[in-house]
Amino acid sequence: MPAHQHRHTRGEPGIPRCLDCGAGSVSNAIDSGALVNYLSSASGPLHGEIRVPGDKSVSHRAIMLASLAEGRSQISGFLEGEDTLATAAAFAAMGVRIETPSASERIVHGVGLHGLRAPSHTIDCGNAGTGMRLLTGLLAGQKFSSTLSGDASLSKRPMRRVIEPLSQMGACITSETGGLPPLQIDGGANLIGIDYRLPVASAQVKSAILLAGLYAQGETIVHEPHPTRDYTERMLAALGWPIEFSAGYARITGGHRLRAGAIRVPTDFSSAAFFLVAATLVPGSDLLLREVGMNPRRTGLLAALRLMGADIVEENPRELGGESVADLRVRSAPLHGIDVPIALVPDMIDEFPILFVAAAAAKGRSVIRGAAELRIKESDRIAVMAKGLRELGITIEETPDGAIIEGGILRGGAVDAIGDHRCAMSFAVAGLIASDVVQVRDCANVATSFPGFVNLANRCGFVLQLESA
Ligand SMILES: O=C(O)C1=C[C@@H](OP(=O)(O)O)[C@@H](O)[C@H](O)C1
Ligand SMILES: C=C(OP(=O)(O)O)C(=O)O
């Protein structure tokens, strides 16, 4: 099927989706089956100027904190992806009025810290680990009880990492065996602050604790083994909540108020990542990515690609709504393998699937270590990428916390993204430099983080088509 025709499907959470124009524009969507494949073929040089959609992490937090603020907040640059739409639907179900003046804007009529109402049904977080873990913290502080569920992938993801610290704060949360969703969160707990050392670097766990801390008596302190993205801390500060934070540390006290305000969401570095690698790998490419979010806790891939020999220039660096952004100019360049520095891992945790593709196309060996968290994302990303790239002729050894990848020539073939959005887009990039067409199976979940990916990719020269499964 040609990529310019719009393809509608229905995914796991039952939210209609459109792979081409974004999930918000699909109220009349037809359910044509959950499985969608990509066909990706060798392309000529990639050219042009593009702007990727809004940041997923910031969009989740913007809806949550604007809902708890007092008064009307205006969110611009909002990501209209399925993950963040599920979060918006959760707050609507708890009585928050959210208007949609345009696809990338939301007006949130905040109800104040204690103004949420009990939802009449289970809250469906869809595919979103961020949505579920942050909501667990926030709901632990409510007077009412609630239940959170997710799709098949989210139902396998570990929630003990949030249940444990929240229980120490006094929350009462019941899970399925093994700490898996659905989660039942009892209302009416009197939370007390804790001083918690995270066993793994996780912005989601840190944020869940801080959101519970808004409702807790006394002070809540989080220490991280490695600094992670600090959007929750920055947004709390911007909306007037007293907070002290630095790399790897955050401290708040409960019982203050959030002021409504304007929240500008930067574009998502994680979405830009696919284009950074694609333009690096396809000879003759020269692509400009406008206004990319450059929070240093997100740009580890840029450092890794530069170590591999990539030619990526930051133009016009500036501040926008309290976040650093820059235009990124990428010209193709030959890559060589590297040992990815472990210190970069948390700053590029979502970029490993596309880094696997860069390493597969590089000269020589790349080694990834210290990234065991990849095994518990939307899929086991080490296993999925290793299997797929082997299918395309690359030699990869999996290790418990990473992989050893021998760069080589990619051939065509069929690979399975098993519903993981980042693996799907990464394999689509692999197809651009493969000797024959690459069929990528099970790509519908790209709409969770990057609605419009296929159209944008085709606009700058990808040869990428949708195929119904
Ligand atoms: O806080 C966030 O918005 C996120 C944190 C990361 O997860 P972990 O906290 O599990 O590392 C990341 O993988 C996810 O895509 C978004
Ligand atoms: C891991 C991811 O997100 P989440 O944990 O929110 O599902 C991701 O987007 O790569």
From TrEMBL:
GO molecular function terms noted in the UniProt entry: 3-phosphoshikimate 1-carboxyvinyltransferase activity
Active-site feature positions: D350 (proton acceptor)
Keyword Iron among record annotations: no
EC number: 2.5.1.19
Keywords: Amino-acid biosynthesis, Aromatic amino acid biosynthesis, Cytoplasm, Transferase
Subcellular compartments: Cytoplasm
Main location: cytoplasm
InterPro entries (alphabetical): Enolpyruvate_Tfrase_dom, Enolpyruvate_Tfrase_sf, EPSP_synthase, EPSP_synthase_CS, RNA3'P_cycl/enolpyr_Trfase_a/b
Amino-acid positions noted as binding phosphoenolpyruvate in the UniProt annotation, renumbered to this chain: K56, G129, R157, Q204, R381, R422
Species annotation: Pseudolysobacter antarcticus
Annotated metabolic or biological route of this protein: Metabolic intermediate biosynthesis; chorismate biosynthesis; chorismate from D-erythrose 4-phosphate and phosphoenolpyruvate: step 6/7
Chain residues that bind 3-phosphoshikimate: K56, S57, R61, S202, Q204, D350, K377
Subunit and interaction comment: Monomer.
Signal peptide residue numbers: none
GO BP field: amino acid biosynthetic process; aromatic amino acid family biosynthetic process; chorismate biosynthetic process
Protein name as it appears in the record: 3-phosphoshikimate 1-carboxyvinyltransferase
Catalytic activity from the UniProt record: 3-phosphoshikimate + phosphoenolpyruvate = 5-O-(1-carboxyvinyl)-3-phosphoshikimate + phosphate
Gene name per UniProt: aroA
